[in-house]
Design brief:
Low-confidence stretches: none
Structural class: mainly alpha
Mean pLDDT: 93
Number of strands: 0
Shape: flat
Largest sheet: none
Helix content: 55-70%
Number of helices: 4
Length: about 80
């Protein structure tokens, strides 16, 4: 948990966060989820090794190139999930 909102604002804020997450590179988001889900049952050294391996694999995607390129060009990235 990294944010607390009044009960009547929970749905609105959840949708805002979901929209922010939807803008991110889908492969990277999936990799983070997998690292958390799978890593939680591992001891720390193996969890770190697993997360590092997953991170290396995402480094060589088209989306990994698009993010920094879009930033340098001062535009929104266009992720393809590749």
């Amino acid at each position: 948990m990294n944010e607390v909102v009044p009960l009547d604002q929970v749905k609105t804020r959840a949708l805002e966060v979901a929209k922010e997450l939807a803008k991110l590179a889908p492969i990277a988001v999936r990799a983070i989820k997998e690292s958390v889900v799978n890593g939680i049952s591992m001891d720390t050294p193996n969890a770190v090794k697993y997360a590092s391996t997953v991170g290396v694999l995402t480094k060589y995607t088209k989306d990994a190139i698009e993010g920094p390129k879009a930033f340098a060009e001062k535009r929104e990235p266009k992720y393809e999930g590749r």
